Amino acid sequence: MSVRFLGHYRIPCLPTKSTLISSSRICHRNRIPMFPTSTRNMTTKAQSPKRAFILDFDGTITTKDTISALFKIALSKQASLGINKSREHEEIISSYTNEFSRHVHNYRPAKEERTKVWEEFDYYRSLRDVEVRSFERVSKSGIFWGISESEWEEFGRQAVKKGDVVIRNGFVEFCRAIERQEGIWGVVSVNFSRGFIRGVLEEALKKNQRLDIFSNVLDERGVIERSQIEGWMPSEEVIATSDFKLAAMHCLIDIWKKSLVEGNPLQAVYIGDSGTDIECLMDDGVQEIIMAESSSSPLIDTLGRLGMGVRNIEGYPDSDDDNLLWARDFAEISQSKFLVCFPT
């Protein structure tokens, strides 16, 4: 595994993939399968590609961000033990809000001046110090102290049952469609708790499914740590920004690739909704779907500012394939021709 230095960030990544791409898009019809395998021992008959879907969690699988739900659960847990952590929680939110706002205000080039893809990547990467300091404040607060991974899984299941976490329309049917096609799917997230994500998914799907989930982990001390990911360089770096999310996606795809029969290509799709997803969505060789309530979502507006065309998936593949795709929910993806006419 190689390590590339981009700006002042030390980014774990696979040796054959660049973590930055040019602002020009490659026509989807002309894209080659991601991470092509050696042609040695390949027959003249084309191998059927394996379909792989990498999904963001907060705001993509769920309708809203779930971090507030995690805080609510943890505060209730501590209160049941006679511990009031409300002040610490308020300080975390206040400190993050102020620091984030100050960073955005002072950052140059300003939002309206950023018109290149790499400029937007630089902006999201510049947020790492802000995000990591917030993670550290959370870890030191004791709000999440004493909660095991298995408890987080149960909390996730209960959050869905109670309606505190709402799954986006069509998600279950979408997953079943992938399974019928013998595809694979997993999750990459900046969320604090892998256990919570797993519990939410198990309740939504009504089955225990040991999915590949690359996110952060809350240990029983209440400290946020990175997942122990195969292929991830040994470090204590949490997944908090778009560049580390991209690196995690590469690791996940590489693990899947290793499980394939030699010569069988992997076709990857990334589905996400926010700025932390931008590098995964723009990664060369990955088909992208932006999850959005409407065509004027913040991320779609950002891509428009960068000169990127974005069209609804309903018309796929009858329109210009050089545009990015967006969908309101998983039902819209399933009802389109996307799963049938998957790009080759």
Radius of gyration: 20 Å
Strand content: 5-15%
Query: Uncertain runs with pLDDT below 50, 5 residues or more?
Result: 1-45
Task: Categorize the overall geometry.
Answer: globular
Major sheet characteristics: 7 strands, parallel
**Helical content band:** 25-40%
Strand arrangement in the largest pleated sheet: 5-4-3-8-9-11-10
Strand/helix succession? EEEHHHHHHHEHEEEHEHEHEEH
Helix run count: 12
Give the tally of β-strands: 11
Helix- and strand-based class?
Answer: alpha/beta
In summary, what is this structure?
By secondary structure, the chain is an alpha/beta fold. Helix content is 39%, strand content 15%. The strands form 3 sheets. A 7-stranded parallel sheet has the order 5-4-3-8-9-11-10, with helices on both faces. Strands 1-2 form a two-stranded antiparallel ribbon. Strands 6-7 form a two-stranded antiparallel sheet.
